[in-house]
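$ run holo --ligand "adenosine-5'-diphosphate" --emit tokens
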Amino acid sequence: MSATEQHHFQAEIQQLLNIVINSLYTDKEIFIRELISNAADAAEKLRFLQSSGQAVFQPDTPLAITVTTDDKANTITITDTGIGMTHGELVENLGTIAHSGSKAFLKQLAEDKKPDANLIGQFGVGFYSAFMAAKRVTVFSRSSQADQPGWRWSSEGAGTYEIEPAADLPRGSKIVLELKEADKEFAQNYRVEQLIKRYSNFVPFPIELNGKVVNTVRAIWARSKSEIKEEEYNEFYQYVGHDQENPLYRLHFNADAPIAIQSLLFVPAKNFETLGMSRTESEVNLYCRKILIEPKAKKLFPDWLRFLKGVVDSEDLPLNISRETMQDSSLKQKLNTVLTGRFIKFLEEQAEKEPANYDKFYEQYGRFLKEGVVTDFSHKDALGKLLRYESSTLDKGTRTSLADYIKRMASGQTEIFFLLVPSREAAESSPYFEVFRAKNFEVLFMYDPWDEFVMDHLNQFDGKTIKSAERADVKLEQPAASEADKLTDEQAEALAKWLKESLGDKVDAVRASQRLVDSPAVIVDTDPMNASMRRILKGMNQPTDGAKQDFEINPRHGLMVHLEKLRQTDSTLASKVAEQLLDNARVAAGLLEDPRSMIKRLNELLEQMVKARV
Ligand code: ADP
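-- output --
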């Protein structure tokens, strides 16, 4: 009886494999990086077990990665002496999708016209990239647990894999790739050497290729800045960040007090989360004296800094501490405080020194800073300094800081004003903007619905209250029109009263406005949270009914002057005009639910107007 078991890949894995095998033609070479990175992880895990005092199988075997190529047999083999896998782990790790992020990646890959193989490692499915170049992949693995036997896992990537016992294996894993005819370059020593140097130079274990060590095992972050070349930094980033591009920012930061830190942090050029991918996970690895304590360390930074990649090394950390205890350690909290403060300061310096580059950063990561304002009370004010917005006094596309806004504030202005609008054009023609234009008060233009939350949380900047232009209590001192063209206070009051009766509970209160110049009427929100919530709900296509607003009318507008007369002669037509005015104001406020009933009414009004003229 054969001891070979047949297993089926989980449906998602098979789907992934189909794409990997049939549609990924570029960047095939990255499979070497991914497999070496897995080998290095396995070695790190073993080192961790040993350092925390656990018994392992073959404890004296040194940690190393070995690569051999055979250009006659067309194979490449990657071996490590790490923790290996048990039978259960082979089934679990090389047959199912473990991470939730991977499913999002799969979806993205399936939809992409030009799927990017390079992303594969970022989503925790790097192993399967082997099938880009191999027609068969065989894994020999023996767990570091003393009583576990060895296993042989093998597959062609089509539906099934098989597992059978393998006798006399040493600790760790050996992965054999039988290369496709078209990919036999990966069985060439020179080609593989080039790739290991490119992608895996900083792997913290020696990598031996056909008997010769080819990588530079150096903890770059522990060296002095002046010794490190730009390319070394970039290479290191590409290794820790699984990225082919150079980073957007780099911060190499060392400190002795209040805690010893050597850190090298990077901001990737592109932000995958902003591109609509699932939530990114922080990829900053925590070391103690160059030994990995916790990969992708949790709570080392606040959540809104989860886009950072790199390394933090602190010799103050206890080496043999379990990861669970690490989570809550006050040392980690200290690291968090120092590192976050330093990184915010770094961003401030960059914004000052190289505004154009900061703009690029802001484009990709502005959302995270805003998330910080809302979720991270202790850094709220510092983050306020990093925000940038378009503004009524600057050209389209140019952004200002709140600090610069304050420097430009008009005399007599005591508050910071912002207007949440879908676009620059909408801002400039918004009825809410009229009074500010007339008074020469600068208004920040915000286009992201979350900005209203952000401003609510920030509330103040440099002692100045931040106010929505829609809710600000700003009045025109001088009536814009001559007395004859405007309603008297009594007339305006009478019209307002009639409008309230006519519109009923479609609006809360109706009153004459002191802020309108060119528009006949405007909607004013009385409940601050409601407005932002409604816009966000509307953006998500959720129903937003139930909320009501005040309706303010412009006593200096011809339409209102005439409406006051019309309501006394033809109240049916006047009522229709009133409803249309309300809908127009809702459109201007970006809050109209369903424009269809309005179109019908508008056509009726037009018909009446045309009829009256012929
Ligand atoms: P990731 O490494 O990002 O988790 P992979 O698809 O590359 O995703 O690997 C899946 C899992 O398989 C790994 O998390 C690890 O548990 C296991 N694995 C892969 N290669 C090795 C190896 N050489 N030694 C031990 N375990 C491995």
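-- notes --
The chain has four domains: 5-213, 220-363, 387-468, 483-613.
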